[in-house]
Amino acid sequence: MTPGETRVVRRSVGDVDVVELHGEVDFASADEVREALCAAGAPTVVVELGEVDFIDSAGLRALDAANRDLRTAGRALALVAPPASRAAFTFRIAGFSADGVHDSVETVLRTVANRQS
Amino acid sequence: MRQALSVWLEATGLDDHKAHDVVLAVSEAAANSVEHGYHFDSVGNVRVEAWENDGSLHVAVHDTGAWRTPPERSERGRGRAIMEALMRDVGFETENGGTVVRMRLPLAGRQVP
Q1: How far apart are CA A55 and CA B12, in angstroms?
Q2: Residue ranges of chain A with pLDDT lower than 50?
Q3: Which of A64, A93, A96 lies at the smallest CB-CB distance from B86?
Q4: DSSP track, A85-107
Q5: Closest residue, chain A, to B78 (C-alpha)
Q6: What is the spatial distance between Cα B28 and Cα B41, in angstroms, rounded to a whole number?
Q7: Do residues A69 and A38 touch, judged by C-beta distance below 8 A?
Q8: Measured between alpha carbons, how far is A90 from A115 in angstroms, rounded to an integer?
């Protein structure tokens, strides 16, 4: 992967689409990331940011925008950023709302499973 | 731009965490320039200068667009919050019709928010 590139890896776990982002989420990749998140078809979309090397405020805006789009469509976006990750660091210093930021994909999947049972 | 800056920072012996802080702050300054200076409608250059002096790493990000102050509490304000969390003495000035964002990072100790 060349520097500056963003890679998207998808998987489905039951009713949840997990979108794993690698590389950089910035001004240049913001639209691509927003589209990738909205293209997932499940009621709940989890974006896994633990492998992101770089994310800036343009990246946060892309996540906000995807969250709005999905909510409008009656769906939900959950963010996963382990506390030691670059993404969690950017969230903290930018004052990005920590509501809905989870430590792991498993935490989100358990929450969804509990809601359904 | 980030790649070139990262290479230079590595050569100065800055550790990975500090280098990431500087690259993130500079990226925000450049994005501010691009969004507020140019409004996406014209092509302009953003020039980044970085140097060491007096125990600090100094950075200046110049552009040739007209500075517009981002609205308070807007999501655009996050870029500024990020710069101010990572660097000291973040300042915005106009210069020959363009703008320059200046900031510095003390090279001893790292601030962790």
Answers
A1: 23
A2: none
A3: A93
A4: SHHHHHHHHHT---TTEES-HHH
A5: A94
A6: 19
A7: yes
A8: 30
Interface residue B17 vs chain A (CB under 8 A): no
DSSP letter, residue B66 = P
- Ramachandran sector of residue B10 (left: φ over 0; alpha: ψ -120 to 50; beta: rest): alpha
Give residue B76's pLDDT. Answer: 60
Q: What is the pLDDT of residue B31?
A: 79
Residue B85 forms contact with A (CB below 8 Å): yes
Q: What is the ipTM of this complex?
A: 0.84
Closest Cβ–Cβ partner in A27, A64, A93 for B85: A93
For residue A14, report the phi and psi dihedrals to the nearest 5 degrees. 60, -125
Does pLDDT of B44 surpass 90? no
Q: Please give the pLDDT value at position B1.
A: 79
pTM summary value: 0.84
Beta pairing class for B88-95 and B46-53: unpaired
What are the boundaries of each domain within chain A? 6-116
**Matching residue, tokens 């030691």:** A84
All structural domains of chain B:
2-106 (3.30.565.10)
Q: What is the pLDDT of residues B58-85, one digit of tens each?
A: 999 988 765 455 444 455 688 889 999 9
As a whole number of angstroms, the distance between CA B52 and CA B55 comes to 7
What's the topology of domain A6-116?
Transcription Regulator spoIIAA (3.30.750)
User: In this predicted structure, what is the pLDDT of residue B37?
Assistant: 47
End-to-end CA distance of chain A: 41
Q: Quick one: DSSP state of residue B18?
A: H
Q: What DSSP character marks residue B52? A: E
